[in-house]
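FORM 12-B: Structure-to-Sequence Request
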């Protein structure tokens, strides 16, 4: 992106940034440099790394990291409930059964789940216990509001669901909460602070997020008691990378980042951080159309249409752009072709990364009943602590792009039919409902946060 040399265009966003800081955050920290986050010796966690366990544990209950906090009856009650949830999940794994106080309308089973019994019981426990507190500090447009449409729409949809007042996951008081939501919209920051466009620098974004955390950590005890291990932020904007939080490593060491840009080469840590599905949400809708064309009517081997953005797509176009009838790759889809219908007519849908690792085509492929072909390096797929993506998708690394046709034609028809059936099975987990419903995309995001909280214990 070119730098604008005109002085007014440079000065304006800086002045707007300073004005918004004073209006929205009003932080005493800005006047007193001594009011800063300092982990005390009593709250420094013995942070044993949460590891992915065997299938019996299914990544649900790793080594629980312990954070010292003052002893309170509220903390004891919350931690007691989490201990009972962990015990119920372990018992479900042991007995291959579940325990619920109500009728279960959906029972996850099958190879698409790493451990369906653990997942099912964990979701039951989440529905029964999980409470989230959203900090009230700050005002729109940067806080308490986000986009609900377009490619970053999942950010605003999640925020609106949590703050609507209708979600039973909302805590009535912060003392009741298991986790704490930082309701900052990075997409709104990009729009208001970095507009008109200048060269991107993460400094202003980092300052806004950091100052907000300083405000709430100075005002309330919750951040400091866990070093942020029970706090999270949700963002789908391309500009947010895990490494952007390295400006203050002590502050952000345990902070949960729920990001579309789940790139392990940029220090995204699946044990702590959460991969957020990227969804292109049209106005008036909640996602791509769902298609249910039988496999024997899908006459295209593989399909992709999209801009040449990023290295991976450059490699894809170099090998396949409009030069094969079976592997159909377009930068601009012909006017007589419909994008969604073309995906519905395809056995495999190519999902190359763009400028960043995430792509909305993964969710679009699943909605179309098309087996996703993930063409990306370093991408952590959404909900991979629960879902076994190898059972319903194919992964192709950048060096194998010229061999796409050979790889896909080598898939036995029996395997393809199993994979396509499993794609239909996981569709419910990639649908946005408002209000949210059990096992849909918003609940799956919440479940990912719930799992991280299960692996943290606040101990007096």
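FORM 12-B RESPONSE
SEQUENCE OUT:
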């Amino acid at each position: 992106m070119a730098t604008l040399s005109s002085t007014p265009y440079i000065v304006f966003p800086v002045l707007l940034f300073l004005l918004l800081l004073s209006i929205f955050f009003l932080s005493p920290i800005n006047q007193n440099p001594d009011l800063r986050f300092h982990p005390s010796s009593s709250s420094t966690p013995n942070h044993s790394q949460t590891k992915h366990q065997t299938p019996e544990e299914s990544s649900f209950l790793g080594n629980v990291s312990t954070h010292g906090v003052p002893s309170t009856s509220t903390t004891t009650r919350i931690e007691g409930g989490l201990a009972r949830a962990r015990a119920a999940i372990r018992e479900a794994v042991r007995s291959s059964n579940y325990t619920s106080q109500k009728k279960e309308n959906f029972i996850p089973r099958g190879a698409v789940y790493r451990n369906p019994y653990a997942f099912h019981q964990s979701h039951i426990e989440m529905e029964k216990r999980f409470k989230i507190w959203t900090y009230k500090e700050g005002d729109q447009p940067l806080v308490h509001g986000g986009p609900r449409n377009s490619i970053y729409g999942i950010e605003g949809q999640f925020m609106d669901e949590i703050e609507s007042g209708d979600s039973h996951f909302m805590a009535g008081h912060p003392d009741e909460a298991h986790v704490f939501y930082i309701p900052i919209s990075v997409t709104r920051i990009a729009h208001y602070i970095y507009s008109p466009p200048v060269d991107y620098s993460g400094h202003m974004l980092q300052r806004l997020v950091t100052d907000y955390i300083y405000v709430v950590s100075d005002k309330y005890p919750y951040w400091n008691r866990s070093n942020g291990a029970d706090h999270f932020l949700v963002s789908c904007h391309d500009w947010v990378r895990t490494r952007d939080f390295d400006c203050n490593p002590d502050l952000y060491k345990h902070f949960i980042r729920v990001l579309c840009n789940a790139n392990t080469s940029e220090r995204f840590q699946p044990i702590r951080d959460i991969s957020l599905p990227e969804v292109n949400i049209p106005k008036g809708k909640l996602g791509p159309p769902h298609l249910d064309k039988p496999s024997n009517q899908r006459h295209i081997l593989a399909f992709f249409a999209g801009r040449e953005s990023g290295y991976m797509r450059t490699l894809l176009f170099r090998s396949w752009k409009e030069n094969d009838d079976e592997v159909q790759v377009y930068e601009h889809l012909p006017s007589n072709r419909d994008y969604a219908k073309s995906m519905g007519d395809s056995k495999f849908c190519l999902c190359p990364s763009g400028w960043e690792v995430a792509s909305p085509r993964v969710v679009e492929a699943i909605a179309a009943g098309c087996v996703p072909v993930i063409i990306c390096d370093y991408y952590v797929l959404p909900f991979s602590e629960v879902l076994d993506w190898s059972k319903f998708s194919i992964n192709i690394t950048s060096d194998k792009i010229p061999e796409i046709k050979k790889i896909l034609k080598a898939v036995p028809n029996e395997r393809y039919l199993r994979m396509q059936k499993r794609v239909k099975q996981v569709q419910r987990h990639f649908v946005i409902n408002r209000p949210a419903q059990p096992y849909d995309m918003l609940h799956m995001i919440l479940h990912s946060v719930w799992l991280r909280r299960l692996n943290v214990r606040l101990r007096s």
